[in-house]
C-alpha cells in the first residue's frame, strides 16, 4: 500500500512540475485571449450571459437538427433494400418521407422558415 501511495505521489509531483514549466514557458498572453474565445455562436463572450436571444435562431437550429438526423436514418435504408421485402421497404420509405414532408410543410405554414431581420 505504501508503494502505491509513493508512486501516486511521484506521479502527482511530476504532473505539478510539468504544468508549472508549461505555464512559465508558454508564449500565450492576455492578447491571445480574443483568438481563443468562442465566435461561432454569434454571442460576444465579454458581455452579460443572460441577454435574450432570437427564438427564430433556436427554431432554425432545431429544424436543422431534425433534418440532419433524417439523413442518418435514410442512408441505411439503401442497404436494407437488398435484404428487405420490396413492398415493405417501399411502404416504410414512403411513410418516413411523408412524415418529413408533412413536418416541413407545418414549419413553413407556422412561419419558422421565414428570415426576418
Automatic annotation (TrEMBL):
Coiled coil, from the record:
none
- Entry's Gene Ontology cellular component terms: mitochondrial membrane; NADH dehydrogenase complex
Question: What kind of membrane protein is this, topologically?
Answer: Multi-pass membrane protein
Which Enzyme Commission number(s) are listed?
Answer: 7.1.1.2
InterPro entries from the UniProt entry: NADH_UbQ/plastoQ_OxRdtase_su3 (IPR000440), NDAH_ubi_oxred_su3_sf (IPR038430)
Domain of life, per UniProt, equals: Eukaryota
Chain segments annotated as transmembrane = 6-25, 57-80, 86-105
In Pfam terms, one family for this protein is: Oxidored_q4
As for what it does, the entry says: Core subunit of the mitochondrial membrane respiratory chain NADH dehydrogenase (Complex I) which catalyzes electron transfer from NADH through the respiratory chain, using ubiquinone as an electron acceptor. Essential for the catalytic activity of complex I.
Instruction: From the Swiss-Prot or TrEMBL record, give the protein name.
Output: NADH-ubiquinone oxidoreductase chain 3
Q: Which gene encodes it?
A: ND3
Amino acid at each position: 500500500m505504501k508503494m502505491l501511495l509513493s508512486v501516486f505521489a511521484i506521479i502527482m509531483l511530476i504532473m505539478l512540475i510539468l504544468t508549472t514549466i508549461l505555464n512559465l514557458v508558454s508564449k500565450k498572453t492576455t492578447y491571445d485571449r480574443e483568438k481563443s474565445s468562442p465566435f461561432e455562436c454569434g454571442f460576444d463572450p465579454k458581455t452579460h450571459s443572460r441577454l435574450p436571444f432570437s427564438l427564430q435562431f433556436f427554431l432554425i437550429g432545431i429544424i436543422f437538427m431534425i433534418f440532419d438526423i433524417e439523413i442518418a436514418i435514410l442512408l441505411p435504408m439503401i442497404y436494407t433494400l437488398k435484404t428487405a421485402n420490396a413492398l415493405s421497404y417501399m411502404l416504410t420509405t414512403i411513410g418516413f418521407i411523408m412524415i418529413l414532408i408533412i413536418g416541413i410543410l407545418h414549419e413553413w405554414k407556422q412561419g419558422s422558415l421565414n428570415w426576418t431581420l
